[in-house]
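User: Here's a structure from my thesis project, written as structure tokens. My advisor, Dr. K., wants to see whether a designed sequence matches the one we expressed. Can you design one independently, without my sequence as a hint?
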């Protein structure tokens, strides 16, 4: 029975240790004090964040005289100054570059899609124009065939008017002459007799 209590206690202890353990990271966030004089006992002008850019003007022991980007001059511990940009600042800069690159890629993809759509519409327009051209060529071929047939008929007649046309035109002329003559005779008679018809 005691063995059972020991095993239960051991399991509880192991589960508590497992719950207490979790992954943690060391931060590189640093807040550096900017002093008025080269001493930690001097008045703090402000705090400078990790990755802030400063110009080193001089050095006095463990302290360096610096000028901030806004023009403030003061003293900081020299051991916290490096020539290279801190990893966090590099990461922020890299993330900004990545975001800009992603935006550029999205913009280029949109432009590519737009160009594809324009090409497709041009292709559709080209197909339509090709169809219209084929229709015009077909119509031209039909007109060429009709023209050839008419030229061959003209060559057969020798450039003369068919005799049937001559007979028809002579008949029409005769009928018009008779009708016109009767009307003229009627008109002359009425004039002579005061507007009355005399037959």
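Assistant: Designed independently from the structure alone:
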């Amino acid at each position: 029975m005691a063995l059972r209590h020991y095993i239960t206690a051991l399991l509880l202890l192991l589960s508590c240790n497992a719950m207490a353990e979790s992954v943690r990271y060391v931060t590189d966030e640093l807040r550096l004090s900017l002093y008025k004089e080269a001493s930690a006992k001097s008045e703090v002008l402000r705090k400078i964040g990790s990755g802030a850019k400063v110009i080193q003007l001089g050095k006095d022991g463990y302290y360096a005289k610096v000028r901030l980007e806004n023009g403030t001059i003061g003293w900081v511990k020299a051991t916290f100054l490096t020539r290279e940009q801190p990893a966090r600042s590099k990461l922020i800069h890299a993330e900004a570059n990545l975001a800009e690159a992603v935006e550029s890629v999205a913009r280029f993809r949109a432009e590519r899609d737009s160009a594809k759509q324009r090409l497709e519409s041009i292709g559709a327009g080209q197909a339509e124009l090709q169809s219209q051209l084929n229709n015009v060529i077909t119509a031209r071929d039909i007109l060429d065939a009709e023209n050839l047939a008419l030229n061959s008929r003209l060559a057969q007649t020798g450039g003369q008017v068919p005799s049937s046309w001559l007979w028809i035109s002579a008949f029409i002329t005769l009928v018009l002459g008779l009708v016109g003559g009767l009307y003229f005779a009627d008109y002359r008679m009425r004039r002579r007799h005061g507007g009355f018809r005399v037959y």
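When you compare it with your expressed construct, this may help: The chain has a mean pLDDT of 83.
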